[in-house]
Structures are given as structure tokens and as C-alpha cells.
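Box S1 | Example of a co-folding query
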Amino acid sequence: MAEAAVRSRDDSPDRLYELERLRMVREQLNGRDIVDPRVLAAMREVPRHLFVPDDLRHLAYRDGPLPIGHDQTISQPYIVALMTQLLQLVGTETVLEVGTGSGYQTAVLAWLARRVFSLEVKAELAQQASERLSELGRDNVEIHVGDGSQGLPDQAPFEAVIVTAAAPSAPPPLTAQLAPGGRMVIPIGGRDSQYLERWIRRGDAWHIERVSPVMFVPLVGRYGQDKETWWWM
Ligand code: SAM
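Box S1 (continued) | Returned holo structure for S-adenosylmethionine
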């Protein structure tokens, strides 16, 4: 009887997803350049399968992005981990995220920072993400609907800013809202070529690093992409 109970608990969907998640971390993150122990721990904890559409849950821990509706995607787990690692969070920060999408990256940030403000331009995605995060008991996140390319001046400054859609250049309101010493991670470029960049504020100067080539959906809004050059917007 006891043995049957143990076996049924071990075969539960949650346990199977957990095993897939541990394998994802081992193969896709440890196997690459993700070394921050807090980021690795958060990636082991956050249930990515709850952030993908029901019919794609069996693919939730695969090494790639997935569609989430509204022509948008949930980013590849490695990219979520890499961007988070680049923010160098220690747990005391107020973070601004532009592009909530499914809310998965938001959840990882909520595990690692004091407070997270996330902006999403599509109201339905913002609503779904908000529901998922409250189901997970995260009360340090606020999701707002609006043009994130203009930031959230009322809540600035932010010790970390993360943009999860490709911008033509760093939006001035986002750099202005970054605290001294703060880090911004952002994909910069157009439809055909983009690079992940990290901007670090040092007084009035900026240290800018080009990290790796990436492929993101377009940032829209005032400081976003030009519709003429991004044909499917
Ligand atoms: N990190 C997300 C996740 O884990 O699901 C994926 C984000 S998805 C690649 C990019 C998101 O940015 C989309 O949901 C899109 O609607 C949003 N977006 C694009 N431009 C925006 C803007 N100006 N303000 C706010 N959100 C924007």
C-alpha cells in the first residue's frame, strides 16, 4: 500500500514536469554558460509549463521558444536565463521588464528581485500573465498595460531593466529611468539582425557590451520599430 502511494506520487504530472525541468537546467543551462547559482535555482523552481498554451505543455521544457498567441512567443529557457544572469540580481532590486508576454520571465525575475514592474502592450496577455503569477503566490509583481518603450517614470529609478522585444536603439526613457550602477539588458537591431546588449550606468557614462546574436519579436510603441521595415507588425 505504502509502495503504491509512493509510486503514484512519483508519477504525478507535477513530478514529471519537475524532472523535465531539472533536465532542462542540466542540459540547456549548466551545459552552456549559465553559472549564477540564484538564476539556476529559480530556473529549477519556476513551472514553465504553466506559462505555455495547454496544447503545447508537453514541449514546455524543450530548448526553444514557443508560440503563446497574439503573434508572440515565450522565449527559449536559455535566453531567459542568460538575460536574467546579465542583470546580476542579488535580491534587493526593483526591476522594470518591458514585454510581459506569457509572464514566465516575469516569474523568474520575481523569484530573484525585491519588486518587479512589468509592462505589456497587449491587454489580454497582461491579464493572463497576471492571473498565472497570482496563482503562483507572487505578490512582488505589478503588471501594467501600456507602451513599455516609455518605461514607468512613476516607479523609477530601477536597478535593472530588461526588454524582451527587439528595439531599433536603446529607448531614451529606459536609460533615463536606470539607477546609477544599474543594468539594462536589451535586444537591439532590426528584423534581419539583432544583438543582445547590456548597458551599465556608471555616473553619466555608459559601459555597453554586445553579448550575442539573438532573434526577438519587435518592440512596438513610441521608441519601437518602424512598421514599414517590419512587414508583419
Ligand atoms: N519574456 C516573455 C515570456 O517569457 O513570455 C516573452 C516576451 S515576447 C518575446 C515580447 C513581448 O513584448 C510580447 O508580448 C509583446 O506584445 C511585448 N511588447 C512589444 N512591444 C512592447 C511595448 N512597447 N510595450 C510593452 N510590451 C511590448
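Confidence is low (pLDDT under 50) at residues 1-5. The pocket of S-adenosylmethionine is lined by residues 72-75, 98-99, 101-102, 104-105, 119-122, 125, 147-149, 164-165, 216-217, 219-221, 224 (CB under 6 Å).
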